[in-house]
Amino acid sequence: MTVACVAVDWGTSNRRAFRIAPDGTVIARFADDRGVLNVDDFAGEVAAMQRWAAGAPLLLAGSIGSNRGWIEAPYVTAPAGIADVAAAIIRPQPGVGIVPGVAVRNPACPAVMRGEEVQLFGALALGAASDGLFCHPGTHSKWITARNDRITGFTSVMTGDLLAALTARSILSDLLALPADDDMAFGDGVDTMLAGGDVTAELFGVRARVLTGHLPPAAASSRISGLLIGADIIAGLRGKPDDRITLVGSPGLCRRFALALARAGRSCASIDGEAAFLAGVRAILRAT
Amino acid sequence: MTVACVAVDWGTSNRRAFRIAPDGTVIARFADDRGVLNVDDFAGEVAAMQRWAAGAPLLLAGSIGSNRGWIEAPYVTAPAGIADVAAAIIRPQPGVGIVPGVAVRNPACPAVMRGEEVQLFGALALGAASDGLFCHPGTHSKWITARNDRITGFTSVMTGDLLAALTARSILSDLLALPADDDMAFGDGVDTMLAGGDVTAELFGVRARVLTGHLPPAAASSRISGLLIGADIIAGLRGKPDDRITLVGSPGLCRRFALALARAGRSCASIDGEAAFLAGVRAILRAT
To answer: What angle do CA A207, A209, A213 make, to 5 degrees?
Structure first.
């Protein structure tokens, strides 16, 4: 089957690549953990991706275009719509495009994103309300305010990156090696934050709870997840008492954020992050 | 010269060992980064320490007695004075004593410490007010409330551990590789937290500030330090509007915490952590 393009959602921790047919359907896909923090030879990785694309053009989005990635694609300044982003795609070599990120250049609260703009425009193309608050949970969660199909502002919370760093090397690493599947302990962690908890104190408190017999070790990683996601939604919702909320991400993460939002008395809709990314790629290709 | 004992302050990240003469003076010392998170063969490390002690008894304090260390020395429950701690020293083999930690067994806010109790009793022996709030900044900062020379309660904040984890592996690691020597950026970070900042959002915001040109890369690690220490003092001071504050730690860390406390309108005294540890060892040996 003809391949129209290969699109890669190349993030900080992971990447997902899709062979896309001219009608927009996905012919093949793969996902791995070769996010930009885990890659040294970017040129080699891009060349391998081109071989996988078998001559079709590559469209790269996410951290791959950051100063921690392959080649830097300068940010588009918010407010920004899809036409602004599509017009700023850089083409470092024939057949390769890198989607720029979006930046808020307010000195009081500057913010940057890469990759979520594709998902956001995809969510809008999939029918999400064009005005509202979009939460993209992940390594660096984004809370994006959209008005009239444009990104007007956003904030970022380093929830997943912090969790990965704590898991890799900290006094909590042994507890974080256990699965986080205890919704009650998760909810307690969220509630602790909503009640005004200090997150860097409560994180160590998880170990204290386990050592004093107040928390089973098997519940610890769920409580930690609840504390970090609780801190995430507090930051994301600050100053947004009324916006409609749409979660854009993996079903597992969206479920956890929806649970946390419900604890804060907020309802939300969810859109699968991969579907949003693919819809965003199609919308950007149409706008190019 | 006769060696009365070798005392080891064996923490999570680092350890410091002292050969102590019968009159309490230090004959020799060494320090390295073989804290419990960096050691696998504890028995071998303890045997090496015994060789360095050349027959004198070993007194080990800190994380070495935790479930992440060599042999677990059960916590003494707060409120606890020096006699309670001295009486609970365990002796797993001839010539080796492990100082127990102290635990708060309140289900609402359980807390555990190991090592800081020795410094605290040392600070009291060195003349610190017997009632007050003692801040031990570090890997897991402790804010200890003392009343009548006893530890009545405390809270812990995982400031240094979090910084080490972010430095080792996160999107901030390149910025954290630069020295943190910019007091103005540090103070701005503290002020951001004192003004109600969300620490996990502000941490990512440091990268956004650098990428949008609002913060020089060389100032980033100072701002991160200010955010984390700001979050630390907010947690430590919560509910303590009036206590006298004594910092117990390395001169460099005490200086930063004193700067942060001043931003919060609080004054403090400082006691060198090593001097406090040595005074605590002498006080415990007298109480044994």
So the answer is: 120
Does A216 contact B at CB distance below 8 Å? no
CB pair distance less than 8 Å for B212 and A156: no
Predicted local distance difference test score (pLDDT) of residue A23: 85
Chain B environment of A62 (Cβ under 8 Å): none
B110: nearest CB among A66, A75, A208: A208
Residue A12 pLDDT: 86
Q: Which residues of B touch A205 (CB under 8 A)?
A: 109-111, 155-156
Q: Find the closest chain B residue to A211 by CA distance.
A: B112
- CB-closest option in B139, B174, B235 to A201: B235
Residues of B in contact with A161 (CB under 8 A): 170-171, 204
- The single-letter code of the amino acid at A24 is G
What sign does the dihedral B238-B242-B247-B253 (CA atoms) show?
Answer: positive
Q: What is the pLDDT of residue B1?
A: 62
Phi/psi of residue A39, nearest 5 degrees: -120, 135
Against a cut of 0.90, is the pTM above it? Answer: yes
Q: Is the ipTM of this complex over 0.85?
A: yes
At which residue do the structure tokens 């993209």 appear?
A: A136
- DSSP class of residue A29? E
* Cα dihedral across residues B66, B72, B73, B78: positive or negative: positive
pLDDT digits over A52-70, tens only? Answer: 999 899 999 999 999 889 9
DSSP of B8-26, one letter per residue?
Answer: EEE-SS-EEEEEE-TTS-E
The answer to whether A225 contacts chain B (CB < 8 Å) is no
Residue B92, burial from CB neighbour count under 10 angstroms (0-12, 13-18, 19+): middle
Q: Which two tokens stand for residue A211?
A: 């050592």
Looking at residues A231-237, what average pLDDT do you find? 98
- For B116-150, what is each residue's pLDDT tens digit? 999 999 999 999 888 999 999 999 999 999 999 99
User: Which parts of chain B are beta strand (E)?
Assistant: 5-10, 15-20, 26-32, 58-61, 76-77, 90-93, 96-98, 102-104, 111-113, 132-136, 141-147, 150-157, 245-249, 269-272
Residue type, A15: R
How long a stretch of residues is chain B?
A: 288
Q: How far away is chain B from the Cα of A253, in angstroms, using its nearest Cα?
A: 18
Q: Please identify among residues 9-68 of chain B the ones whose CB lies closer than 8 Å to any CB of chain A.
A: 12, 37, 66-68
The pLDDT tens digits for B67-118 are: 889 999 999 999 999 999 999 999 999 999 999 999 999 988 999 999 999 9
